[in-house]
Every structure is written in C-alpha cells, then in structure tokens.
Amino acid sequence: MKKILVVCLYSLIIFSCNNPSSQLKTENDSKSKGFVLNGSLKTAISDKVYLSKIIKNELQPTDSVKIENNHFVFTGDVDYPERFALTFENSSAAVIFIIENTNFQIFIDPDKLNETVIKGSELNAKLDEYKLASKNIFKKIDYLFPKFQKARLENDVKKLDEIGNELKIIEKEFTDFSFNFVKTNSDSYVSAMVLSDQLKSTTVDTARISNAYKQLSKEVKKSPDAQLIADALNLR
Q1: What's the mean pLDDT in 115-142?
Q2: Which pLDDT belongs to residue 32?
Q3: pLDDT tens across 28-70, in order?
Q4: Cβ neighbours around 49 below 10 Å, total
C-alpha cells in the first residue's frame, strides 16, 4: 500500500508523459531568448552529463556536455516549459527538474540528490513548493508503515483494514491538495504537470481532471502536459 501512494507522490518528480513531438532546440535553431543552465557539482561524479527529456516514463537524450572542474553548461530553447533529467556517465544518479527559457543555476550534491538547489527559475521554485507540501502529507505514511508491517506479520485482518482506511484518507488528502494547487495556480505550467500526473493515479477521476483542466489559462493549455490531458480525455 505504501508503494502505491509513494508512486502517486513521486510521479511528478520522476515521470512525465510529454508530447514526443515537442523538440528541444539549440541556440542556432531559434532566435528566441532560450535558456542557459549553469550546473555545479559539490564533488566529482563523472566526466560527462546528459540532458534528457522525459517522455512516457522514458528518458530521451537531447544533449550532452563535458564536466570541467565540477561545472557544466547547457544552452538551448524550448517551446514550452517541460520536465527534463540530468544523468551522468557511469553513474545511476539522476536529477529531475523543469527547463524554461531563462538563465538559471543548479547546484548538485551527488550524495544528497534530494537536496539539489535550483536558483533563477520561478517554475522550479513553484515545483519545489508543491513537492514540499506533498512530502509533508506523505510523512504520515512513515508513522503507519511499521504498524502495517506488524499487522501483516501477525495476520491481523482487522488492524490491516484500519490501516488501509487511514492510507486511503492520506491519499485523498494528497489528491485534494493537488487539485486545489491546480485551482489556485491556474496560470502556472506546473499545474498542467501536476494535473497530467493525475492520469497515472491508481484511481483516475476523469470528471475532476476535466474540470480542473478547464480552469487552466489559455497559455498553459498549449503546453505538452495540458495537451496530453486534452487528448486523453477528448477535451479538444
């Protein structure tokens, strides 16, 4: 049960189902402002870093650069903000974040990837706000899980049912929070990402997703995540 709920929480952080036709452009391909991503590593981890778009739970490499003195730079242009991943040669480490057309910095401690710091990006700040609130909700599972393990070992059916109901309450709290986040941030691309992840929930509430989608701003509805929702629910 814990695994199911944790997947719901971290789907925003780890996975994305973006539109495969949306391509990352290099600076030579576009005259728009574009983005500059300056990356710094606290300690050496690799000689090469890869930038990949997350499409249908898979990483699609878009660029790579050498790491020099624990520093690297990516430049390019995106049509709309999307979720990408940084991965490293000969390492399993991965950092998930949003690329938007701005100049921003990312500071990575290979030993503490969950404490990665991103500066200069409003969307990543908004995403961190959502992630922090979500984690605070799911901390309640840490309290319940030992009880769940004990009840399972003792085959205590009554206790397992009680814990199952408590887990459902936590899941509902998280779902309600997510939809309220979308409602109060209808002009943020992060809301489209949060909403598209609801399509991967164990119980998909299509009516609620549809209503929330309609609240998104016109510009946000043009983003790949919003288009995914529209296609999945025939909202075009």
Answers
A1: 95
A2: 52
A3: 443 458 999 999 999 999 999 999 998 867 899 999 999 999 9
A4: 24
Domain ranges of the chain: 16-120, 125-232
CATH number of 16-120: 2.60.40.10
Instruction: Please report where in the chains the tokens 């929702």 appear, as a residue.
Output: 229
pLDDT band at 19 (very low <50, low <70, confident <90, very high): very low
